[in-house]
């Protein structure tokens, strides 16, 4: 991204698109019963509360009544339909780490393992976005979850810690290309969850080959454990390399969420918050998703930035847009064109 002398002036920035992740799949409801919704009605109401507080993008996961994360496609369809009816302007972004489980013996017989993950393209009603990881990556969320943060929670259990420390995000090249093909065919926008520079470089190659032709909405994730660590220089290097025409959201965890969101807000970028990212404030006290949104709104206003409503957020994310060629995709995302046959030197932006 390029910055000019007046790039840090709020009048030259897009309005703020706040993403909230209020379903905290790594926590059990008893870890924070005041904030983690359990029933379907509670999960829909949480979306309403977050939208009214100022968040326009809902990062969605679903729970079963026993508190565990749902792997049933039907439950995701139910929650998406409920949120769509309750807050129709909210952008629904389904977490792409889901691997659906068959709900009957017949389904079990016909599904292959990759097909269960590709089922995200078959959600009904359709979400606006599905998050997509690039490159298979270790996701050891335990690396930066210090013991004092976990005391009295389900993650204090050594067996659960061991399972989460070995977690990976499978996103190899064949799977990614097929997943992008299916999402684009369903007119569902991918939101790219990038773990560092290697993922951004691979995504650029995907675009330059024409395997994805649409807007680039990116999230940089600084959570360590196989992803970039929460070091500002990692974030700034990523910003420097990100295409001029993309949107970029910051994501970190626990006490790192507010500092990275503040940096993002100051530079004209976008923040993410919610109990999937942190359940504590800077003093270590429980801190719910709605209160985190309100804090983000306050910080944005202190920096002179306005908050996007649902319609404005859809325009900023270019929801529903796809492009017809590689060249159009590169131009729309502020990237240099591909080198022409016989061309020498560095390609210039057209």
TrEMBL record:
GO terms for molecular function: 3-keto-5-aminohexanoate cleavage activity; metal ion binding. Its cofactor is Zn(2+). The keyword Metal-binding applies. It comes from the Bacteria. Gene3D superfamilies: Aldolase class I. InterPro entries: Aldolase_TIM (IPR013785), BKACE (IPR008567). This is 3-keto-5-aminohexanoate cleavage protein.
């Amino acid at each position: 991204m390029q910055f000019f002398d007046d790039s840090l002036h709020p009048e030259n920035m897009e309005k703020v698109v706040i993403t909230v992740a209020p379903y905290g799949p790594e926590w059990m409801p008893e870890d924070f019963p005041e904030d983690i919704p359990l029933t379907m009605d509670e999960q829909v109401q949480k979306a309403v509360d977050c939208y009214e507080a100022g968040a326009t993008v809902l990062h969605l996961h679903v729970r079963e009544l026993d508190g565990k994360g749902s792997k049933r496609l039907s439950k995701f369809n139910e929650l998406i339909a409920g949120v769509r009816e309750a807050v129709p302007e909210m952008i629904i972004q389904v977490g792409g780490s889901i691997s659906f489980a068959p709900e009957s013996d017949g389904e079990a017989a016909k599904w292959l393992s990759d097909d269960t993950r590709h089922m995200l393209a078959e959600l009904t009603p359709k979400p606006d976005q599905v998050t997509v990881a690039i490159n298979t990556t270790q996701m050891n969320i335990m690396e930066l979850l210090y013991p004092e943060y976990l005391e009295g929670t389900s993650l204090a259990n050594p067996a659960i810690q061991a399972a989460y420390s070995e977690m990976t995000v499978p996103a190899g090249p064949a799977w990614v290309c097929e997943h992008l093909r299916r999402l684009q065919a369903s007119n569902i926008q991918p939101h790219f969850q990038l773990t560092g520079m290697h993922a951004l470089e691979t995504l650029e190659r995907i675009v330059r080959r024409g395997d994805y032709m649409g807007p680039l909405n990116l999230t940089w994730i600084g959570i360590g454990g196989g992803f970039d660590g929460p070091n500002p220089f990692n974030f700034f290097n990523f910003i420097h390399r990100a295409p001029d025409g993309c949107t970029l959201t910051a994501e970190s965890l626990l006490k790192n969420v507010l500092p990275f969101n503040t940096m993002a807000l100051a530079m004209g970028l976008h923040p993410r918050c919610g109990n999937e990212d942190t359940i504590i404030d800077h003093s270590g006290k429980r801190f719910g998703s709605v209160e985190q949104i309100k804090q983000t709104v306050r910080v944005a206003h202190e920096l002179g930035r306005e908050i996007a409503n649902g319609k404005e957020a859809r325009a900023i994310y270019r929801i529903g847009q796809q492009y017809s060629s590689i060249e159009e995709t590169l131009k729309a995302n502020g990237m240099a064109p591909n080198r022409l046959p016989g061309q020498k030197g560095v390609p210039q932006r057209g």
